[in-house]
Specification:
The longest helix has 6 residues. The protein is globular. It is mainly β. It has 1 helix and 7 strands, in the order βββββαββ. It has one domain.
Length: about 80
């Protein structure tokens, strides 16, 4: 699921896998991407990376979980400055 908070220039991506689900991977494409902005992704473990809007428009996220694996959430915020 993708939650967007445009006034705050941020959002949240939530991917869940039920314990007995036979599916171990899913593919997602994010919506509402501004190709002129950069997006900063961070997770609950403190990791962070930046992706351009142009790259995000093309990217399909491949989320894969093993049967007993749990992962923390990932949030994203949009850089308020245009890419120059």
């Amino acid at each position: 699921m993708q939650y967007d908070r445009p006034k705050e220039s941020n959002g949240l991506i939530i991917a869940c896998r039920r314990e007995k689900s036979p599916y171990e991977k899913a593919y997602y494409k994010l919506g509402g991407i501004d190709s002129n902005k950069e997006y900063i992704f961070s997770d609950a473990d403190g990791g962070e990376f930046t992706v351009s809007g142009k790259e995000l428009e093309k990217k399909v996220w491949n989320l894969q979980y093993s049967k007993n694996e749990r992962r923390n959430y990932t949030s994203a915020r949009r850089d308020k400055k245009n890419i120059t």
